[in-house]
Input
Amino acid sequence: MRPKKIRWIKYRPGEKCFRPLCKPLHKVENVYLTLDEFEAIRLACLEGLKQADAAKRMKISRPTFSRIETSAHKKIADALVNVKAIRIAGGCCKIVKRSNK
Output
């Protein structure tokens, strides 16, 4: 198997876990969202970028971006529909350094 290409992200999430309050903590199942999936959702849904533009920002191909975004949507939908916590961690990512301009 080929090693994954580094995905570049701009932000780390402020919170690393979102959980439903309607279930006791010991009864909540988890869904794990990687940092690159989090970034794909941020770029596509929050910033409204097209896949090609978002892929350029993450320095990956458009088809790879599409797979990451689809995976993220499926995990988030699973968490919402099946009342699960969303935990954000992992993935082969690097943070983009801010320029001092």
